[in-house]
């Protein structure tokens, strides 16, 4: 058994000790209860640093030059390398995101990801896990399509939906759509009945239309503020309704370009931080590559300092890893360290129905150090392998 002592964890105000047996968390209890006597090598004193699970990225579009909508079976080894890379970036799990594309490419990518997920479960390697798939499109509002190709946008219907997801429903975790396109509500009802999370985005929806979608089971918003009307004091719109609705989580990009820091602070305060929001990277295929110009479907994107733009200058995404957003929130004094960490590690899990840091979870842990005088937050993975004993 290994015991981590003097740890701060999200959701607790006092120092904790975390007992680990094998590869799982066996107990979490306050330091005031005393530490059982063990041999010195089995104790890790983190001296008041924060401990968390790794990050969960619910919106990531590609990596190492591979866009997930372009997947083929030949890319299975590349997916392994992407998972290993994301693991080194503090990510425990992620949802490969398929942006709007041709139906045949949706189907092909889903087939590849289904096979890869099955292989991961069988191999049980220590790496970032593909937790399912996020479909961002094709039922998006033309006026708020952002960088999504207009020629592949579709009218929301059960027939069109079934043409994309048939035989692959079990791996689809989230689908982003514009609720005003689902006039009958049949698409949202169908997805909700199948356990697929409906996220509202790329939309012109009014507050009433958003409320109706939430009442039907939608429970998420895709990259809040982006590709939707902004907050207005007389027209709260989709985002305003999401903020005041119970059990609705808002995903948000904390790169400083997609949403200004002041608006981030307003949003997170209104959402009560990790209770109603979570961070996403929205990273594109050049994640892990240097700045430059890269192909993106039939177009090209310019990457400069982690920000991706089309030739027109339109914002297309980022190439910054998820945990950079955590560091930014602290650096910009947006929220407390605890909330910043939780926004990438705890709330994304809760948003898709997974448990957070708790007994029984795998001890894939991050150690966070906050240098208060510099207002700088850094992290590292805790390597517990060398300390494990036979007990």
From TrEMBL:
Its EC number is 3.5.1.25. It holds the Pfam family Amidohydro_1. Residues 51-368 form the Amidohydrolase-related domain. Its cofactor is a divalent metal cation. InterPro entries: Amidohydro-rel, GlcNAc_6-P_deAcase, Metal_Hydrolase. Zn(2+) binds at residues 136, 202, 223. GO terms for biological process: N-acetylglucosamine catabolic process. It comes from the Bacteria. One of its GO terms (molecular function) is N-acetylglucosamine-6-phosphate deacetylase activity. SUPFAM superfamilies: Metallo-dependent hydrolases. It is an enzyme of class 3 (hydrolase). Keywords: Carbohydrate metabolism, Hydrolase, Metal-binding. The active site is at 282 (proton donor/acceptor). Binds 1 divalent metal cation per subunit. Substrate binds at residues 147, 226-227, 234, 258, 315-317. PANTHER family: N-ACETYLGLUCOSAMINE-6-PHOSPHATE DEACETYLASE. Belongs to the metallo-dependent hydrolases superfamily. NagA family. This is N-acetylglucosamine-6-phosphate deacetylase. It comes from Gloeothece verrucosa (strain PCC 7822) (Cyanothece sp. (strain PCC 7822)).
């Amino acid at each position: 058994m290994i015991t981590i002592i003097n740890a701060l964890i999200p959701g607790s105000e006092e120092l904790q000790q975390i007992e680990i047996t094998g590869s799982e968390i066996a107990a979490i209890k306050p330091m005031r209860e005393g530490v059982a006597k063990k041999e010195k090598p089995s104790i890790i004193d983190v001296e008041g640093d924060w401990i968390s699970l790794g990050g969960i990225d619910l919106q990531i579009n590609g990596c190492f030059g591979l866009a997930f909508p372009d997947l083929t079976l030949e890319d299975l080894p590349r997916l392994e390398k992407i998972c290993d890379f994301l693991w080194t970036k503090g990510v425990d799990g992620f949802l490969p995101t398929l942006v709007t594309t041709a139906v045949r490419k949706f189907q092909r990518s889903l087939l590849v990801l289904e096979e890869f997920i099955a292989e991961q479960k069988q191999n049980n390697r220590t790496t970032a896990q593909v937790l399912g798939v996020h479909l961002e499109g094709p039922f998006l509002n033309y006026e708020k399509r952002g960088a999504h190709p207009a020629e592949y946008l579709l009218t929301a219907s059960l027939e069109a939906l079934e043409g994309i997801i048939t035989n692959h429903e079990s791996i689809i975790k989230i689908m982003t759509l514009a609720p005003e396109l689902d006039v009958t509500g049949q698409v949202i009802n169908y997805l909700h009945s199948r356990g697929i999370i409906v996220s509202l985005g790329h939309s012109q929806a009014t507050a009433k239309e958003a409320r109706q979608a939430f009442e039907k089971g939608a429970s998420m918003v895709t990259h809040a503020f982006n590709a939707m009307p902004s907050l207005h004091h007389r027209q709260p719109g989709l985002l305003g309704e999401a903020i005041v609705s119970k059990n609705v989580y808002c995903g948000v990009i904390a790169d400083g370009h997609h949403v200004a820091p002041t608006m981030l602070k307003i949003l997170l305060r209104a959402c009560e931080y990790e209770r109603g929001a979570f961070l996403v990277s929205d990273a594109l295929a050049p994640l892990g590559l240097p700045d430059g110009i890269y192909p993106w479907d039939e177009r090209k994107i310019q990457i400069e300092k982690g920000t991706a733009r089309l030739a027109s200058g339109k914002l297309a995404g980022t190439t910054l890893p998820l945990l950079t957003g955590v560091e930014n929130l602290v650096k910009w004094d947006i929220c407390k360290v605890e909330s910043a960490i939780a926004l990438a590690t705890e709330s994304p899990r809760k948003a898709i129905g997974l448990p957070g840091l708790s007994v029984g979870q795998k001890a894939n842990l991050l150690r966070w150090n906050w240098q208060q005088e510099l207002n700088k937050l850094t992290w590292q993975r805790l390597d517990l392998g060398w300390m494990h004993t036979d007990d």
